[in-house]
Amino acid sequence: MKTIIKYTFAGLLASASLTGCTDILDKAPLTEISQEDLWNDPALVEAYANSIYNQVGHGWTESMLASAIDECELTWLRGCEVTNLSRISPSDLGRMNGGWWGWDNRGWGTKWNNITKCNIIMEHIDDVAFTDESLRTRLKGEVKYLRAFEYNDLVTRWGAVPLITRTFTIADDALIREQKRATYEECVNFMVKELEEAADMLPATFSGSNYGRATSVAALTLKAQILLYAASPLMNENVKIPEVGYMTPKADRWETAAKAANEAVKAAENAGYALYANTGDPEKDYQQLFLDTSEGNKEVIFARMGTTSTLNDNLSSIEQWNFANGYGGWGGNCPLQELVDDFEILEHGTAREFDWNNPSDAANPYANRDPRFYASILYDGAKWKDRELETWLSEDGLSGGKDSKYGQDSWNTSPTGYNMKKFMDEAYVGNSWQFSAKNYIWLRMGELYLDQAEANCMAGHDDVARTALNKVRARAGMPDVNKSGTDLMEAIRHERRIELCFEENRYFDVRRWKLGPQYLAGKIHRINVVKKADGTKTYKVGEIGGDFGTRIFDEKIYWCPIMKSEIDKNPNLVQNPGYSK
Known about the structure:
Elements: E1 6-7, E2 22-23, H1 35-39, H2 42-53, E3 72-74, H3 80-84, H4 108-124, H5 133-158, H6 173-177, H7 184-201, H8 216-231, H9 253-270, H10 282-289, E4 300-304, H11 318-322, E5 333-335, H12 337-341, E6 345-347, E7 350-352, H13 359-363, H14 371-376, E8 377-378, E9 383-384, E10 387-388, E11 393-394, E12 419-420, E13 440-444, H15 445-458, H16 462-475, H17 485-499, H18 505-512, H19 516-519, E14 522-523, E15 525-531, E16 537-543, E17 550-551, H20 564-569
Parallel strand pairs: 11-15
Antiparallel strand pairs: 1-2, 3-5, 4-13, 6-7, 8-12, 9-10, 14-17, 15-16
Helix pairs in contact: 2-4, 2-5, 4-5, 5-7, 7-8, 8-9, 8-15, 9-15, 15-16, 15-17, 16-17
């Protein structure tokens, strides 16, 4: 048998004793390949690079980040409550170190495994005898992008991490234990540089069997997102340690972010990327955007592909986890009333806030809403599959609809009176476990335009900000926003809440804006629908009771703590503010 290539994972990132090794080629047919064979065969190098894509994470687990923020409440406990009640600690990260059920490849160890793979390739690729130099360049660009992508997935949760761009062997034990967290600024600068270099090496698009690879547009888009986050208040205002932000604020960080976003938008538009508008119906377009895995979906800039995975399965059981109980589903991540109320009313071409004090709104709360509401939320009376959703209860509370606690599988009844529709394939049959393939979208034009809008608004370029914002609203069938200054910024924040709901942006947006006390504390709410004997219904907002019906905010939860297990391995790691070692 040939000697299998083995490396020690990067530093603190492997095992406490640092004697454990791992096979880096963990996908057939790359399980038993010698180092000599690998680096002498460009096809094997490409296959190894391809295997990194299969370990890129996604956001569809049983417990979505939507339930660790003011979007949803989880029907059952899966670690989100640890964050929602500010119980997160170095010994208990809840679901923030990877999904508990339906692994999402986003745990600390998985990130470092992927970074290690990237480092291995970058150390050897210049010595590989490629007959096609363009392939060497392309693979280097892809690996640089993936390395920056994985670093960013760590930095957005934990702040700065050690910047490791080389591989280690067991002989490097002492060097490994010397690793320290870089500063936040150093991490941002590193990721930006990697992405700029990647953009110069990659084409703007791929097609055919190469569709789904990292592109120059993806690199520029991720760069713009990183710089947007870096300019935000959390990383610039009253920063306590350099590992979680800049110790010296600079006014031009918003200008830098705006310039990067403008560059990314220009590159994307020039390459043919565009908001998904294939049907001309705002509701259908928004819903189909997340189900269309074809190259014809021009909105997708980078996704974790679920259609060609060598794992030989789909990314997620998202429908089973989130379908209403009356359809054989588990209830899952259920939208909060707070989110539902934030979808605007659209009347006669104008938009306004929903208001429970308005008798018309209160009597018919689901009429004339932003089209994205109907593509995102399942509510009592919403048409789904072959019937309407039924979450109502009778006036005496002793009976109810098929999706209420009196329906089948009462333990999976939504605690909020709503179920998730976004991402869901209506054709799925409950409990069949036969899922359609999906791609988890990490970067898309809708988000890029909103990044551009926010960065330019904060940099004082309201005209550019409004144009970008209104492109997103126009696709949704919503009227233009004509505000300026702080009012415009509030409109942009609102649009991110609606356009990007359940896509994991909100968890990070509220934190980087430092709006935890406003959105992460206090009672959370549900809808109570009562069906009278004559068939009419009334709607009343109620509190979600029990131990988890009141969210608790502690400033420490702006960042995840470095795990105790990692600090035990390497005491050089500085802990984040608010957590003891």
